[in-house]
Amino acid sequence: MYEQSTDPYVSVWGENLHFGYWDGEQDQATVAEATEALTDKTLALLDAARDERVLDVGCGVGAPALRLAGQTGARVTGISISQAQIASATAAAQKAGLHERVSFQHADAMDLPFPDAKFDSVLALESLHHMPNRRHVLGELHRVLRPGGRVAIADFVLLGQTTPEGTRILEDFRRTGGVLSLGLVEEYQAEIVDAGFTLEQTLDVSAQTRRSFAATADAFEAARDRVVPFMGAEGLTAMVQTCRQLAELPQAGYALFSAGRV
Ligand code: SAH
């Protein structure tokens, strides 16, 4: 999915391939500002220090990793399943002059090519919903984290049981968004604990991120001429409709988690 969609997506939404965070109705932040705000909320949970080794799981085109390294002086390794993203992210690190602190490599989060306890902290910013088995990937994150290290996760969650109509909308979300792992926030917390972590914080930011559904629909509709060649007119219509329905679905939520490895 990302091999084909990353460039158009970046041109429509920006280099932060995740939701935005708006602090209430009156917040006038642009998508670019709001997506950076969500990066910052997530990085605040990580609280990385200078020279720490951070793994960024599902790094996109590198914007969060570069922000983290730029702000804290941490050394970041980003991984993605998409070769095209790794090429873009590597170029971005060069351009930012951060290539000595930040590197990117092609890898599958389900099978991390790193030894046990290699990293001081792990970031997974809106990537774990793509994993075919979230329990397994959480085990991998735990394995590569050193004792005393911390993980910060930002991801889609469900806030309760849906009606049959809501369940149908979520099925569309799974299909059009490549969403393979989606469940109740309590299930997510239990899986984090079962992987061996001590859960520290859970922040329900559903209200602050909800505007992203409509903003995505608006942005893609406005860029119709550019996006139809890669997703087709029907694909665009389906995606926009799903976003608008999700915007109205109370159970479609978003959470930030932090957890420590003892
Ligand atoms: N964290 C980035 C990108 C989020 S998009 C940002 O916030 O900008 C989701 C990311 O997860 C993409 O980079 C995608 O390539 C990656 N991804 C999906 N499945 C993966 C897997 N199995 N292993 C590694 N990365 C994966």
From TrEMBL:
Keyword Transferase applies: yes
Pfam families with a match to the protein in the record: Methyltransf_11
UniProt domain Polyketide synthase-like methyltransferase: residue ranges: 34-262
Keywords in alphabetical order: Methyltransferase, S-adenosyl-L-methionine, Transferase
SMART domains according to UniProt: PKS_MT
SUPFAM superfamilies registered for this protein in UniProt: S-adenosyl-L-methionine-dependent methyltransferases
Superkingdom assignment: Bacteria
GO biological process: one example: methylation
GO terms, molecular function: S-adenosylmethionine-dependent methyltransferase activity
Keyword Cell membrane: no
InterPro entries (UniProt xref): Erg6_SMT_methyltransf, MeTfrase_dom, Methyltransf_11, SAM-dependent_MTases_sf
The protein's name in its UniProt record: LooM
Species this chain originates from: Nocardiopsis flavescens
